[in-house]
Design a protein that fits this description.
The complex is a heterodimer of chains A (about 130) and B (about 500). Chain A is of the alpha+beta class and about 130 residues long. Chain A has three helices and eight strands. In chain A, the strands form three sheets. Chain A has a four-stranded antiparallel beta sheet with strand order 2-3-1-4, covered by helices on one side. Chain A has a two-stranded antiparallel sheet with strand order 5-8. In chain A, strands 6-7 form a two-stranded antiparallel ribbon. In chain A, helix 1 crosses helix 2. The model of chain B has no long low-confidence stretch (mean pLDDT about 95). The chains are: A alpha+beta (about 130), B alpha+beta (about 500). Bound molecules: iron/sulfur cluster (2 copies).
């Protein structure tokens, strides 16, 4: 499952995600991270069964954690099956079926938001505020 | 062999015309041969569904009591043309709302009317003896209007050049989002299904020909604006009754960073009267080539990266220099096919008779660029020729003195050959002076990546560079990177009223 982690970066502090990996032994897949000098946000993918322990560990290190239930969602009434979203997505979430209708592989989505900007019909949205 | 249009219409009336969509035609001709295909197929239906920016509609609202001659008109805060008499107007699809910017525009007004939603009309007038009323505000449904006639000056482009971006930043264009460093390719057009691609010589498509437009039956008015069939870029002016249209085929859209546009479905039935029609409708995606243009170059003459055809574009990726680059269509092939299918069913059910053009469109026309009697301002016209520069091996202190003396905040840095190698600003110098460290020479603190302009660059392009890089000055260089002048925000003030500055 995917977790969105927000943390502030204090001087001298160890990299928070590396610390969690070290302490829990759970492998974390970092799908997206924006980190500047004072704060950071990362989208991580972890095995479902490790969710509790990872959340607790991150929280103890001062991060706020939210579970992302959904990837990008397609509003079929607005979508015209153009395909403007296809090539801008870094994770190949969108593809055409054999009827030239657009399909979404939601699980691959890392909620980078790029496709939402590219869709001319406001047909893409997400449920989790991020 | 030839088939008369009357024979085809007789078969349509009797319900036994053979109608096929244009994507099926190449296969039929390959299988049966041209002669047999001519005997067999009576009508080929085409379709396209994509952004058709040059679209709009005429409305007549009926007279109010007391009556008004509307001079300024807004529909849901989108301004419509006030230069027609009394209660007529024209709304253009790309006109943006005065309150919601690019999130709502003329296209949305058109879609809302068609979807049965209420639209607010506001209008003003000076008031005259015959039309005393000065203002009006009223909520309208499509059914309240006397006429709502869509009339689009430039629709159904025969093909569209594809787009790529070789710069290092994201571009937002009417060709959609273009990722940096040739990260993707965008294209538009229905290819094999496109009406004009199936009749490039304009033998069957011309004034008066019945069409599918936005789900209604309409017709071709004549050639479209910017029509250029001689170069393979024909366009059509088309019209249809908005009251008969469906939101399935009329969709407002916003191209992020570009603006509002209208996605529209247009289709044309082509009667198969002779072998030339058979051949032209046997066109395949592979046969329709376009240029792949670099939208990173902000000029009318964008460099062509290579030729691509619709089969390649639609395959999902195009190879460039050994790399597969993913493609995105901006128009909808699925919807285009839907248009062609619906049109096919109309003809099969005898709902639409075939008509030959009442006035032909010349296939020889070629578009011309704008005649510019006065060239727009160039950097040359406003740049500051007094250049104060500093050598890269000079001491920081020397640079500081130059900045103090001159009226500038920017010092271009040159090497021993007099060529530009960097730039330092007042800020860089103050920083170096405030934190004296190892750096003693100008080259230790200069910025090496310098944004530059040239003398003949249009001022608008230079201003875009300043804005994009958030800087207030640039060196003007010649071919060899000699600094010939500086362009600063102050120079731009020379332009009348500072019109070039946001
Ligand atoms: S949000 Fe990003 S990763 Fe998710 S579908 Fe859109 S472009 Fe792809
Ligand atoms: S860009 Fe938007 S409208 Fe086009 S296929 Fe993707 S989701 Fe649908």
């Amino acid at each position: 499952m995917k977790l969105l982690v927000n943390f502030s970066k204090k001087a001298g502090q160890k990299p928070i995600i590396a610390q969690v990996v070290k302490d829990t032994g759970v492998l974390i897949n970092v799908e997206r991270a924006i980190i500047d000098s004072s704060e950071g946000e990362a989208l991580i993918d972890i095995p479902d069964e490790s969710c509790k322990i990872i959340k607790e560990k991150l929280a103890s290190l001062g991060a706020t954690v939210r579970v992302l239930e959904h990837g990008i969602i397609l509003d079929e009434t607005e979508c015209v099956d153009c395909g403007a979203c296809v090539s801008v997505c870094p994770h190949e979430v969108f593809y055409f079926d054999d009827q030239w209708a657009i399909r979404v592989r939601e699980g691959r989505c890392v909620l980078c938001g790029r496709c939402m900007d590219a869709c001319p019909h406001h047909a893409l949205y997400h449920k989790d505020e991020f | 062999m030839k088939k008369s249009i009357d024979l085809i219409n007789e078969r349509v009336r009797d319900g036994n015309a053979r109608v096929v969509t244009a994507d099926a035609m190449p296969g039929i001709v390959a299988e049966l041969g041209e002669d047999e295909a001519l005997r067999e197929v009576d009508v080929v239906t085409t379709g396209t569904f994509g952004a058709m920016c040059s679209s709009g509609a005429f409305f007549n609202f009926g007279h109010a009591e007391p009556p008004i001659r509307m001079e300024r008109i807004w529909l849901n805060d989108v301004e419509a043309y006030g230069g027609l008499a009394a209660v007529d107007t024209y709304i253009g699809a790309t006109q943006q709302s005065t309150t919601r910017e690019d999130q709502y525009g003329g296209a949305h007004v058109i879609e809302d009317f068609i979807a049965g939603k209420s639209v607010e009309l506001r209008a003003m007038s000076r008031g005259t003896d015959c039309y005393p009323r000065r203002t009006i505000t009223t909520d309208l449904l499509l059914e309240h209007l006397n006429q709502a006639i869509m009339c689009n000056p430039r629709n159904a482009y025969q093909r569209y050049n594809a787009a790529i971006n070789t710069t290092d930043r994201v571009l937002h264009t009417y060709m959609g989002m273009l990722l940096p460093n040739s990260g993707n390719i965008t294209f538009s057009g229905a290819g094999v299904l496109n009406p004009l691609s199936n009749d490039p010589k304009l033998r069957m498509i011309g004034s008066g020909v019945p069409i599918f437009i936005g789900g209604a039956q309409g017709m071709v008015v004549g050639e479209g604006t910017q029509n250029s069939p001689a170069g393979g870029f024909g366009t059509l002016m088309v019209t249809g009754n908005m009251k008969e249209m469906s939101p399935d085929f009329v969709r407002a859209a916003t191209m992020q960073g570009y603006g509002v546009t209208l996605y529209l479905g247009v289709g044309i039935p082509i009667p198969v009267i002779d072998l030339d029609v058979v051949r032209s409708t046997a066109v395949r995606d592979e046969d329709i080539a376009v240029d792949l243009l670099d939208y990173g170059i902000p000029s009318r003459n964008r460099p062509v990266i290579r030729k691509v055809n619709y089969a390649e574009l639609r395959s999902g990726a195009v190879e460039i220099n050994g790399e597969e680059i993913r493609t995105s269509s901006l128009s909808s092939y699925r919807k285009a096919k839907g248009v062609a299918e619906l049109l096919k069913s109309w003809v099969e059910q005898g709902k639409m008779a075939l008509v030959l053009p009442t006035r032909p469109i010349s296939p020889e026309t070629r578009v011309k660029p704008m005649h510019e009697s006065v060239l727009g301002p160039r950097v040359l016209d406003i740049m500051d020729k007094r250049v104060v520069s500093v050598g890269e091996t000079e001491e920081i202190r020397a640079a500081a003195q130059k900045l103090l003396k001159g009226e500038t905040n920017h010092l271009p840095v040159i090497n021993s050959n007099g060529l530009l190698v960097g730039i330092v600003t007042t800020y860089d110098i103050s920083k170096a002076v405030a934190n004296p460290g190892k750096a003693t020479l100008v080259r230790d603190i200069m910025k090496k990546k310098v944004v530059t302009t040239t003398q003949d660059e249009p001022v608008d392009i230079a201003v875009q560079k300043l804005e994009r890089h958030n800087i207030s000055a640039m060196p003007v260089v010649d071919q060899d990177m000699h600094v010939v002048a500086m362009l600063t925000a102050i120079n731009l003030g020379k332009l009348i009223g500072g019109r070039w500055l946001k």
